[in-house]
Every structure is written in C-alpha cells, then in structure tokens.
Amino acid sequence: MNIAAITDHLPILMVAIPILFSALMMFLRSAPSVQKVINLTVSFGLLILSILLLINVLNNGIVVYEIGEWGKYGIVLVADLLSAGMVLLSSGISFLALLYSMDYMEEESLGSTYHSLFNLLVAGINGTFLTGDIFNLFVFFEILLLSSCGLVVAYGKGGFTKSDHKMEATFKYLVLNMISSFIMLVAIASLYATVGTLNMADMAAKINVMSETGNLPWHIFPAALLFIVVFGNKAAIFPLHYWLPDVHPSAPSPISAMLSGVLIKVGAYGVLRIFFLIFDGTLYMFQPIIIFLALVTIILGSISAVGQNDIKRLLAYSSISQIGYVFLGIGMGTVTTIAASLVYLVNHAVAKSMLFMASGSIIHEAGTRDMRKMGGMVNSAPFLSGMFLIGAMSVAGIPPMGGFIAKFVLFDSGITSKYYIPILIALVFAVFTVFYMIRAWQRIFWGEVRSEKYDEYHSHGLSWKMSVPILVLSVVVVVFGVYAEPLLSIAQSTASQIIDPQAYIDAVLMREIR
Amino acid sequence: MNSFTVIALAIFLPFLSAATVPLAQKILRHRVGWFASAMAFVSFLLIAYVAPVVIHGDTFTGAVSWLPSVGVEFSVYIDGLSLLIGLIASGIGIIIMSYSNGYMSHKEDLSRYYQYLLLFMGSMIGMVFSANTIQLFIFWELTSITSFLLIGYWRHRPLSIYGATKSLVITAAGGLVMFIGFLILHSITGTFDIPTILHDSSMIENIKNHDLFLVTLIFIFIGAAAKSAQGPFYIWLPNAMEAPTPVSAFLHSATMVKAGVFLIARIHPIFSGTEAWFILVSGTGMATMVLAGFLAFRQNDIKGILAFSTISQLAYLVTMYGYTTYHEPGIGVAAATFHLLNHATFKACLFLVAGIVAHEAATRDIRKLGGLRHEMPLTFIVASIGALAMAGIPPLNGFLSKEMFYESSVEMGAALGFPFGIIVPAIAVIGGVLTFAYSIKLIDGIFLGKRKDEFLPHHIHEAPYVMLIPAGLLSVLVILFGLVPSIPVHNIIEPVTSGILLETVHLHVTHWHGFTPAFMMTIITFVLGLLIYTKYDSLASWQDRLNASYPWISVNYYYDAIVNNARTNAYRVSSFVQPGFVKTYINALLILTIVLIMIPMIALSGDLIPQTLSFDINPYEALLMLLMVVAAIAATVLPKYIPAIIALSSLGYMVSLLFIYLKAPDLALTQILVETLTTIIFLLVIVRIPQTFREKLSKANLTRDVFISGLVSVGVFIVLINATQGIVPPFESLSHYFIEKSVSLTGGHNLVNVILVDFRGYDTLGEISVLCLAALGVYNLIHSRGER
Questions:
Q1: CATH 1.20.120 domain locations along chain B
Q2: Lowest-confidence range among A249-253, B70-74, B484-488, B684-688?
Q3: Contact A400 B142 (CB under 8 A)
Q4: Chain mean position to CA A168
C-alpha cells in the first residue's frame, strides 16, 4: 500500500488498527514479550498516523471518510481540526502511558487482557473523536466505558490499591455511566424521531433550517440539554463528578493518566461537537448552565483537593477542578474563550497524565499512596522531584509552564468578553490550586524522611520505560509554556471551525450519494 | 550589538549559566560560587553597556515576535527605572555570590544554591526590562518560585517549609490578582505593551475615566503589596528569613521585595494623579511604615529586626511613590527612587553583617550578643556605617534620601491642607524615629555593651575577607553616595524620575538646605529616637504581652488559622459533598436531568402534551400497557429478589409483545431471546447471595426517591411523547432511503439485516467489540478475584 492510500484511509485506520490488534492480542497471551513489542509498535504507529491525519487536515481541510459509500445515510467519519487534534493528543498520551505500563503493571495483569483492553480503549477514544454519526458516538461511548472499566481493575506492581476498592469504584462508574447512557439514548431517539437523521452534519443543517424559520419544536431544547448529562458525566463536571475521585485513584497509574488525561476530555469534546455543531440555536440557554456548573465544579474540586492525603486522590480532585476551567471557557462561548479552553484542555491533559505517571513512580518508591507517610524523597528521587514540580507548576498555572499560558488565554478571553464574576471566582480557586499542588510537592519531597519502607518494589527503581514517558511529557509542558505559538494558532483555527460549523456541514453533505 | 541583544543576553545569561553550574562544580568544586559571581558580573557589564542611552535621557524599546496569536511579544523596555533595578539586581548579585563563597559550608549542595540564585537573578533582570505585562508577570512569578525554593533551601527543616509555603502562597496569590488587573488593563487599552500606554496620554486618560479604573488599580496594587510585603501581606517576609543569610540579603531586602515597588513606579504614570492612588498607595505605605517599624522592637533575632526594618523601609518607598496631586502627580518620586538605591546598599550591607555575626558567634539572638567591637573591629565599622545610614545620620546616603522624604511629606501635606498638613509629616517623622531606634539597637546590641560570655564562644574571630570585603564594598558605596550624591543622582536618579514623570527633571541634592521644615523634622527624629531608645526593651515586652493576651490582633493568627487548618476543613467539605453512597450520586444525576428538562419547559412554555396527540387506543394495546405498568411497579416493590426478577422479566416479555403488535417480529424474537437468557443468568447468580433484599428506607428517603424518579419519568415521557409526533416536514426519515436502495445497493431483502450489516455495519462492529469487552472484563474480574 502506498502512502497516498494510507492517507486516504487515515480516519478508519485509527479505529480499525487497534480493534484488529486487540483481537490479535488475545491469541498472543502465551507470549507476553511479543505482545509488548507488537503493542508498542502499534501504538507508536498510531501516533505517527495521527500526526499525518492532523497535517492532512491542516493542509487539505476537513477530511470526510464514508464507511460504505452511503454518505449521510450510512456512517461517516469526519476529521476536522478538533477531531484530528484530539486524536493526536490521545495517541501521544496513549503511547507514553503504554510504554510506562510495561514496567509498571504486574506481569500477570499485563499478560492476560491488558493489551486487548488497552487497544480497545484507544479504538473507543479515536472512534468517539472521529465519528460523524450521533448513534455511532453512543456505540463508541460504550466501548470507552467498558474498556476503561476493564483496565481500572488491572493491577500494578505492588498492589497498593485493594481489590475491593477497585470493585467499588468500578461499580459506581458503571452504574452512573449506564444511567447516562440511557439518557443519551432518550436524547438521540427524540432527535431522530424529530429530524429523521443520525448524521450529525445533516442533523445540524436541518435544525439550523428550523431555527432560522422559527419552527424549532420546543422539545429539541430538553433533548439538547440532556447531552449535558451525557458529556458532563464523561467529563466529571458537577454534579456528575462523583465517580471520578474513586475511579481515577483506584486505577493503575498509567490508566489514571489515560483517564485524567484523555477520557474526561471526551466529555469536553462532546459538548464542543454536539452543542456548537448541532444545537447552535440552543446555545443561549446552554451557556449560562455550563458556566454555572463549571464554576461549582471548580470550587468543589479545588476545595476537596486541598483536603486530600492520598496523592492520587488529590490529583483526581484536581482533575475535576481543572475540567471546570475547560468548561468555563466552553460556556463563555466565543472564539477566543473556546480557543483558550482548548489550550487549557491540552495543557491539562499533558501535565496531569505526567503527574499521574510520576505519582505512580512515587508510590512505587514510597510503598504507599498516603502523603502523610512520605517526606524527604527529594534525596532518593531527585528526578521525580523535578518532574513533579514541573507538573505541579503547570497545573497551578505558574510560568513558565504550559498551564500558565492556558490560564492566561482563558482569563484574558474571559475578561475581554466581560465575564468578570466567573473569572474572579476562577481566580480565587486558582490560588487554591497553587496551594494544594505546591503543598503536595513539598509534602512528598521536602521534610524529614518518613518512609523507611523500601521493599522489593524499590529495587525496580525507575526503569527507562517509566522515566522516558514522564520526561517527554514534562518537556512538552515546558515547551508549551515557553513557546506556545503553534498550539495557540491551531487552537484558534480550531475554535473558529467550532463556532462556524458550516464548513463541517458542507464537507459532509456536499458529496455524491449513490 | 544593539541594546535589545545586549539586554536579552543579560537576561538569559544567568539562566544558561544556571544550567552549567553542575558542570562548573565538577571543575571548580567548592569554589563554584566564583563562577556564579563572574556570570553576575558579566550581566552587570551588559546592563551597564546600555546605560549611556538612558543617561542621555532616552528610552529604548525592542521586540521579537513570540506569541502573535494573542498579541504578546518578547519585548524589552530600557528606561531609567529598569536600568536602576537591573543594575542593583546584578550588582548586589555579584557581591552576594562572592560573599556566599565564605558563608556557605562546602558540605552544602552548592550547585543547587547557585543555580537558584542565578535563576533568580535572571528572572529579576527579565522582569525589570519587560516591556509588556505578560512577560513582566512571567518573570515576576519566576522570582516568586525561586524565592520559594531558596527559602526552603534547607528543605528538611519544618520552619523553612513553613516560610517557603507562606511566601509562595502570599506572593503567588497576590501575583494572580495582579495578573487579572493586567488583563483588565488589556481589555481597556487593547494592548499588553507598557511603553505604548505610558506614551499615549489619551489612552491614560481613557483608563482614568473607565468604570473599572479602581478595580484595576486595586488588583495591580495587591500584587505589588504582596510582593513588597506591604499592608497585611507583610507576614511572609519575617518567615522568609529561614533562607540562608546571603539569600535574605539579596532577595528579601535588596532586590526581589523591590519588585512591588518597581511595579508601583512602573504604573505610576498610568494611575497617579488620582485620589485613589494617594489613598491606596500612600495609605498602605504609611500604615505599614509605622507598624512594621514598631514591631521590629519585639524581634530578638537580628535577621528578624532587619526583616521588619525592610518592611518599614519598603513602606517609605511606597508612601513616597504614593504622594500625588492632580497638578503634581509625582511629589515623592525622586526621593523614593534615591531611597530605593540607598536602601539596597545599606540594608544588604547590614544583612551581610548579620551573616558574619551568625557565622562567627554562632547565634543571631540579640539578647545573647554584645560587646563584639573588640573582637570584630572591621565588622563593627562596616555595620555602623550601614546602621547609621539607615538611621539617617549625615553625611551618609540614608540621611539625604530621608531628608528628601521629609521634604516631600511636607509638600504633600501642604497640598492637602489642614489637618493633613500636620498629619502626613508627623507620620513620616514617627517612621523615622522608629527606624532610628532599631538602627541604634542593632549596633548597641551586637557590638557595644558587655560581652555575654555565657552565650558566646571563647574566641570570636574577625570575619574572613571573602565575607568582609563584599560587605565593606557596600559600606563604601553608602559613604560615596552620601558624600558625592551627584554621582548616582545625575547618572541614574534623574533619568528614572524623568521616565516616571514623563518630563525632564533636574535634581539638586545637598546636605545643607538651611533651616527648612525637613531639617527641623530631622532634629526631632534624632531627639525622639534617642528618647524612645531608652524605652526600647519595655516597649518590646509590652508588645509581647499584648500579643499574648490578644493573639487575634496579629495577621499571622488568621494566616495560620486558615492555612494550618485548610486540610482538615477542606476534608470536612469534601466528605460532606462526597459521602460515598452511589445512591446519592444517582440522585444528583437524576436531579440534574430533571432540571435540564424543566428549564426549557418553563422558559419556552411549549405545549407539554402535543396537540397532534391521538388518543385512539386499541383495547389490547391498553391492556398490554396496563400490564406493563403493573409489572414495572411490582419489580420495584416486591420484597425479595426472585419475585422481583420475575416481575422484571415479565416486563421484558411484554415489551416483545409490543414489538409484535408494532409489526417488528425480528425485534420481538431478539428481545425474547435476550430476556430469557438474562433472566436465567440473573437467577443463577442471585440464588447464591442472601435473599434479604432491601436496606431499611426511612419514609422521608422513600418519598424523596419516589419523587425524584417520578419527576424523571414524567420529564422523559413528555420529551419523548413530543418527539414521537413524527418527523417535522419537509424532512423525512432515513428509512425511505433504506427501503428504496437496500436491494439495488446491497442485494438484501431483510431491511433490518441490511441496516445491521451494511448501512450501519460499523455500529455492529462496535457492538461486537462491546460484547468482547464485557467478556474480557468479566474474565479480568474472575481472574483477580481468584487471587486476592
């Protein structure tokens, strides 16, 4: 197959390859080392493909891929800047998380189903970002949900999380997601019954026509707003955030990195995609709700994070509050605020996945997740100390880290759009963020050495497979802080595409259909 | 080289050399400090290289593109102010890093120490030369972070950790507030560029008339006050004394704490000439000046005295920059700028002396020190020069700038009229009196009086030259600036003042002006100062008693109450909102669902039940529906598992009946199959667990649950019943396409099958994956259960 052919089929390859290899991995269970090599190669290949996809979208505009040449009547995959960007982000983090898991995960967990589940998770994420069909989105949400459940119950070396904690967390995760899946079905069914299509672009065009002529049925509004429950639940915004502080800490660290880095961003992606593409006419009702929920999320997340002793739980609460900032930008709903919230999203994804991986290594080193039992680790783990500080500074929005640029553009666009009060609230809790992140770093690395427990897991130390992903991500954090221009300009073009979805609609609908 | 390149080099050279410090340490070992001070020296020369531009009364702006998407450049603005503080930062940097060679033990982690110092110096230089607010803020926060790392240099000590946290929390929080101020300024002016605003009087006018003028000013001032330890934010600076003494001399007296003052001077042209500026800036300054000067009495640690003295002296500067009237916006600017320079010299000198004393006498407690003049005569002379300059004794530089302070206070008071004509100079004098008293205490307590042998080592040596010479150099500067004030005044103070006032200024500074009010005030200061000094100890013990009986009068009380209990309180909040029961979480989700359905329902007041709704119903259908409702209710209320499951599955079978009625036999078939299987599996599992079904539900909880689920059902029902009124014309359903094309395109006659495997085969693939996933998940569960 030549390069041109690969380029043509990029969207489906991003989904098909991981599904194929997840099946293959099941047959390779007897050869764990082969599994590792293949899976890493696949994951790296996907990263390359996702870079190609983004370049392709940047050069040639929106890429539409029909599955089966039925146009809007079948299922289409659409890669615009938002989708392609998200796919690249997730592919990058997936590859690094996978590399990290090679030495982090318990051999037995790794050998049995880990590789298959991980591939399906990647397929689910890519499928969600790329699909142009709202029912297909539902299907991929299910894949996401179940594969992440399966991965949460996998074990890292040392088993610092008890099995019943994992079960309880997964149970909550499943139950809440099942209910929100049901709500999603209700919403999709109402839409389909009203406009007679499942294709998002087609739906957008039809709803736009109805809005413009003023005969948009009122039940479209509740149906639209129900998507807040659906995506809010994925993104863990208030009051749908309850599962997150249980699930993210119980998962093994590379999976926590995936969950906090990529999976909760799926919710933000969904809101951007569905509301700004399809429900343009409901935005005036949607925005104040989102701003309100985002602010409560920020407040609850950051206050709760201050109160944690468990390092991973602290990071989990911090993720909640940070996703609140992303939604704040989305809720303010102008091109600049959305660009800002995309920049925020990317920076948080990178910094938080790095922090979760670093915390995994810290936990291995200290033999506990409890920060009260840690202390003085700077002498035994100077590398981790530096990396954790970079991540903590980024999440706290302290320059010169990427998180600062994110807070800068978010606050600046918010103030320029005259959202003074929300920005003030966001500011107050940004101070909380500085406090809890820096305190966490101090508690782990400064002070007297408390943990005398250097058990067998200490001897594993930090293999290159665990330190390289952390290092790469922190380099990205610093680069985004020092020279953010490429990110900013792509975010701005993406945001203009989101605000004006006509290009997306045209790209899908202006095609010949058999 | 043009000025831009030179300054960019001066900024980044310290950063680069910080990166090479570990390498240098490999070669130079414990002498690595000389490498650092050499780098500081190069930075100093680079900055001095651009000085002629400024001395000739010009300014320079240069920029390179950095973040064009958001309109931020990397830009450099060279004027008197940036030059002055840039020279102080690098100049004191040379002295401090040389001194550290003697002060820091060779066993310390020297490379980290010098790295942090160089990083700090680079950030400080970067901050003062920043031409835009964003770049300024970035370097500003970098100085906060490096300060944090340096305060916590001995990171195993609880007090270092406490001091480091406190400084970061206060300065970074203040910084964020200031940042919002900058952003509001941006939204008013449309630019981040400071010189653009400074040189555009219509823009400044626009800012002053804007609704958000006051908010912007207060926000930016909070940042400056937090950094310069003014007002209630002073509390971090005394705790910052946990840093190694050279660090305190460098960051916490001579340079970093001047950042706030620098910012006040920088934004002076924009905001001054308003009442708000005077009240806020001078008001905060005066209050801080008097209180901090007074609180210095209570300190036993000589670094503590110096810390409070720094706060009080910074407050002088803030007060002077705050002196403003409509006609003359910058009454105290020249005095403040001169004092800023002088303070950097004599205070850094005193800190270095404190370091020497602690190094040789092994204590910094002023109660244990005394009579060291015989053993350390040179240190004694250096210290006396520093302390007397601070006290404002002629002919030292402190005298000159304090005179100018008094003059400007008189002028400001006169401009305000009675009673301020007396109050403002009186406050200035009180500040001077307190300064005089604690300056004398430093000399008296350490070097004069009797040697307290019981607390001190037998032999105390004179300080080594590596530590003495840097301190001595500073005292030479103190004398030089005092005797020949025209050197600093013409070369730097005049350009700074002109830059701030935006007009050419000529200053004339001499020791003798005649019997002016300022002279009288100086005399009063000396007399009162000596009088107060006789009561020094009793005032100190009165403060101790007051603080012991009323702990709440201290700002620290509130800081500790908030921060030390933060975790406990936050934990309480988080366990309240996150009780851990999945039921609470489900309720939250459902309530949100209800609200989201209700909002448009109320806002749009559409018809809840569509008018097109047909109420024709077939009796069979009605009966089936009724039975379904009964089965659903039974499933919820039946008290045991098995009957409940049977009720549930009967509901499922009735759904399949409904499918048959709706002419969808294959769906019905699938439904029956699925229902049968799940019922069997469910039963097989459920018989293995205890059959007591329900936890006790209180009546209130039950009502609540019924209410919530009822509302959700009604809401979803209303939405769906509206949706099922058919596709809005002219749109039509996909099914037309499928019916038309299925045979020609796919060759299949069973439409459902064609949709599943052809039109939406991709969905089917996804669903198959879901099934596999479920299987894998169960496998994982069983697998892990088996072991643990």
A1: 580-731
A2: B684-688
A3: yes
A4: 23
